[in-house]
Amino acid sequence: MSQHPDTAFVPLLRNELAPAEHARVTAHLASCAACARSLEETREILARLGASVPAPPDVHWGAYRAQLRERVHAPVAIRAGWRRVMQPLPLALGAAAVALLVVVAAQTDFRAGGPPNDLAVFEEVVIGDRLPLLQQYPVMERLDLLEDLDIIRQLDVLPVREG
Amino acid sequence: MSAATAATPGGVAGQPEAAPGTMPGVEATDEALCARAAGGDEPAFDALVSRYQGRAYRLAWSILRDAEDARDVSQEAFVTLYRSAATFRGGSRFSTWFYRILVNRCLDHRRRGGWWRRLVDRDAGDEGEPSLTERQAAPASDPAGDIDKERMMARLWTEVDRLAPRQRAALLLHVQEELPASDIAAVLGCSEATVRVHLHRAVQALKKTVR
């Protein structure tokens, strides 16, 4: 067998392999030390797990059966849908998420349509309109930025460059 | 006391009890009870619940690791059994069919979340429920080596909790319920080869903990 039969180890330990496969795997194990070691580790792990299965918390079986009887005889629609939807925490989380979305949406609208953006558009229009005029003023060579509208608004009264 | 006896009142989980309506000394098979439950025979359904409630709750708890969820999901599985008993055609054993309902419910529950409940209950659960270490059977003797052994077991089961859901379900069905690979395949709705891969990968992951 060219491949290591790793996935056959658990069924081999349970004696669940068909005779032909069992023979193949055991033949491989006889000649492959790594697989033989791996099989022993698998055996050890399963034995440890089997010997230490944790016990669940105790149940009051009378209450369990009474609750089960109620659920068995509850109308289907109420049983399935309502219980799932009416969990208090998902409801609260859902409401919080909706509220958050509303706030975010309101702020986004405010930013998109509010004065700051309008002002930026206004500045661009004004500067764009006056660009040919601006090019004629020497003062513009000394300005680093065109955003100072106060200066731009005064451009009409500044001396025009000659020549 | 084993996990099985602890989870079932009056004896070992899964041991057949005398079903109502049967002759004294003659126990109805699960399949026969299921057929009667499909016809609306409530005592037959009750008998099935009595036989399987311990195992159902224990397996659900092993997968979900939450007592309330385990109670809820195992009850859901019984409700499904009650309503769909007529769909059991006898192509497999009743136990395999019922385990399939139960395990699917558990995996659905994990997928759906319940994350919010775990988040909220984590503190309360930590106070109210003993840890995995405390849940394991006490060692017969108490030499110093047993403490290391207990720690190792706790680490091992913690690692089991970290396995992928289907790997974990396959491993629990193998180790805890002692189902053969063919039955695990029927429960998980996959091929036997896939079950072998699940088990192999689960064991490989656990080996790293032991080393």
Share in β-strands of chain B: under 5%
Low-confidence stretches of chain A: none
SS-based class of chain A? mainly alpha
Main beta sheet strand tally, sense and closure of chain B: none
How does this structure look, described?
The complex is a heterodimer of chains A (163) and B (211). Chain A is an all-alpha fold. In chain A, 71% of the residues lie in helices and 0% in strands. Chain A has helices at 9-13, 19-31, 33-51, 61-73, 76-85, 88-113, 115-134, 139-142, 149-153. The two termini of chain B are 30 Å apart. Mean pLDDT of chain B is 81; it is low at 1-18 and 122-128. Chains A and B meet through helix 1, helix 3, helix 4 and helix 6 of A and helix 1, helix 3, helix 4, helix 6 and helix 8 of B.
Strands, helices and their partners?
The complex is a heterodimer of chains A (163) and B (211).
Chain A: H1 9-13, H2 19-31, H3 33-51, H4 61-73, H5 76-85, H6 88-113, H7 115-134, H8 139-142, H9 149-153
Chain B: H1 3-7, H2 30-38, H3 42-64, H4 67-84, H5 94-112, H6 115-128, H7 132-135, H8 144-162, H9 165-175, H10 181-188, H11 192-210
Helix pairs in contact in B: 2-3, 3-4, 3-5, 4-5, 5-10, 8-11, 9-10, 9-11, 10-11
Features:
heterodimer; A: 163 residues; mainly alpha; 0% strand; B: 211 residues; 11 helices; elongated
Summary?
The complex is a heterodimer of chains A (163) and B (211). Chain A contains nine helices and no strands. Chain A is mainly α.
